[in-house]
């Protein structure tokens, strides 16, 4: 039974779920690229970057918590898994920079572009080498997909819940993050 208004992720295998996340993030980066150089699009750029950062954060969390440890336990390729861990750390670093920036700030577009390039490289490695390794290892990809989907729903609830801190600021205009102070 689902709660009204609660988003549920349809059952799918692990690789299909991860690929769907990849496709969504690629689309968000394309939409951001289409806005570069267009005046009066700062608000939309900010919304896109918030969504990009949120989606990448959710995706990397389910991979770091579930997918990578399972895959690491059944394949003998520490280099592949270590590279993925380092790429996730790099993405987290760029996301932390973007969380305190505004569209129009120096290096804002460049930071988003570099994040997009790093994520594109990561996705390519993941969808080829890592997905092939997962298929070859004989993992229960449907069961793993169910675990990933469940954890993703939990994270979405946790990250979407209103802050209860006395210092909490309500998000602006439906955005997930409270307004950042101007430079």
Can you give a write-up of this model?
- The protein is 68% helix and 0% strand.
- The protein has 183 residues and is an all-alpha fold.
- The N terminus is likely disordered.
The general outline is globular
Structural class call reads: mainly alpha
Radius of gyration: 17 Å
Spans of at least 5 consecutive residues whose pLDDT stays below 50 are 1-6
Strand content: under 5%
Q: What is the N-to-C succession of helices and strands?
A: HHHHH
Main sheet makeup? none
Question: Number of DSSP helices?
Answer: 5
Task: Kindly report how far apart the N and C termini lie.
Answer: 47 Å
User: How many runs of DSSP E, i.e. beta strands?
Assistant: 0
Classify the helix fraction into a percent range.
55-70%
Task: Describe the structure in brief.
68% of the residues lie in helices and 0% in strands.
Features:
single chain, 183 residues, mainly alpha, 68% helix, globular, disordered N terminus
